[in-house]
Amino acid sequence: MKKIDDKTPSLSMPAGAMQELAQRATDLIVARIEGLRDEIPWRGAPRTTLEPLLREPPPEAGQPALAVLERAVRDVLPIAARVDHPRFFAFVPSAPTWPGVVADYLAAGFNVFQGTWLGSGGPSQLELVVIDWFRQWIGYPDSAGGLFTSGGSAAILDALVAAREHHGAPAQPAVFMSDQSHSALERAARIIGVRPDGIVKIASDDEFRIPVPELNRALAEARALGFTPIAVCANAGTTNTGAIDPLTELAELCARERIWLHVDAAYGGFAMLCERGKALLNGMDLADSISLDAHKWLFQPFEAGCVMVRDVAKLEQAFSVQPEYLQDTRLGMQQVNFSDRGLQLTRSFRALKVWMSVQTFGVAAFREAIAQGMELADRAGDYVRKSSSLELLSPPSLGIVCFRVRSPDPQLPAARLDQINEQVQAGVIASGVAMLSSTRLRGVYSLRLCIMSHQTTWDDVRTTLQAIEEQGRILI
Ligand SMILES: Cc1ncc(COP(=O)(O)O)c(C=O)c1O
Q1: Is any atom of ligand 1 closer than 6 Å to the C-beta of 267?
Q2: Domains and CATH numbers, the chain
Q3: Is the shortest distance between the CB of 266 and ligand 1 below 6 Å?
């Protein structure tokens, strides 16, 4: 019989081969980042192309690691959106800083288990430190705390669980939001057991903000129907237009009505770092919970969401479960087990990327990069206002500007103008100049630029706007 200690399975590599593989990966990543501006910002392919390229059974025997890496870099990784390209303006871009990227590599290489203090004392302490930076940036009291999550969606889910538990997990819960709120809010509400008729969407006003009197009415109506409101969800930067709900008024209403206020600041929250953003987000600190995404406007690689709760004890009351097999991990209140604050037990060490990049560049550099995104959006707005062929559909807000190609013919059917704008968008993307996405504002097809990369210059924005005008000229 074969003795089990004869030989270990060969899943290890000699040090030299490890270094060679990592060095090649580093060289390729740095070359990609250095060459980004000269690349197209998006490369897609249909499934029919990708299936024959990639579909295969797992090989029984291994192959040289360098060849595997080269194949991934040739056939897989480039067929994607380059969300960190200086002219990637679609959806919500993400342009990570290099120390953040390296931090993810370190976290994986050191294989940090960031669920309990026992598993990761140093990393847990560091997560406490970074979460406390966020607390201070928000202006939250000492009682506040939170944790890193995979993204904004997970942060929202954690927050709504805390809200539901805070309200005693009622049988017929209801949550309130505007028609501009991110789909993650509705999804989270569904996951926590809110029935469709308990997910109340209030029609937004002309500035895409939630009208507080309407919300007030909806709360009363829901109560009359037997619902228990467990959360009002406000936007600190909608994904559509960057609109910010009246946070202070909402906080006053929620305090009066004793309802949990969640502010979804996944997209816009880190604008709080610069003076202008802080003023715009005034009142965010009054919320019971806030969702943030460091992989958006804090320039971190995916995944780096965060939930902050004004009274962190509420988060722990909602999530802490103490099984016997984890009894060894109870090291006293001081030693925080982050698994007590959210969905995941096994967690990666996401705080490291924020810490390493902020330590490397300093807060001032982040502040400047965020302010620059807002300024570029303002300049894009001015450009559109002055253009004879474009029109603004919503004013720039927190780095987002929505507009369209306009027609000189007032009789042109609305559907035809929508179609033309769709074609303009497709034309610009196909030209490789820029990647932009669209949305509908009050039913009108809108082009949308979300300007967030720290590498984006006015030249990038102007070139994109000129390409849009040019496509418009061809089609109108
Ligand atoms: C306002 C807002 N909320 C929530 C989310 C969801 O965050 P994530 O994609 O990180 O889960 C997004 C993503 O774009 C967003 O813009």
Answers
A1: yes
A2: 37-54+63-96+362-476 (3.90.1150.170), 112-361 (3.40.640.10)
A3: yes
